[in-house]
Amino acid sequence: MSERLLIKNGRLLDPSSGCDEIVDVAIADGKIVGLAPNIDASGYHVIDATGALVVPGLVDLHTHAYWGGTLLGVNADKLGPAVA
Q1: β-strand 45-48 against 5-14: which pairing, if any?
Q2: If you placed Cys at 76, which of 22, 43, 62, 80 could pair as Cys (CB 3.0 to 4.6 Å)?
Q3: Chunked in runs of 10, what are the mean pLDDT values of the chain (84 residues)?
C-alpha cells in the first residue's frame, strides 16, 4: 500500500491551465487525486506548504556559457544545438 500525501495551503501555479490559487493537493498511488481548498486530512501524511509554491516539474535553464570567463564556462557554439 502506498502512502497518501496531502500538500496543504500551497500556492498552486500551473501556467498550462492558468491556475494560480491557494489549494490543497491530494496524492495517492503517485497520482494527483484531488485539488480543492480544505481537503480532509484523515488518512494522509500532511505537508504544510503555507507560504510556498506548488508547481509542476520545472526545467533549470541556468548555464555558464561565457567561454573563458570562469572555470565553469562552456563553449556554447560547440555544446549547444546546431541552428539550421
Answers
A1: parallel
A2: 80
A3: 88 90 95 95 96 86 77 80 68
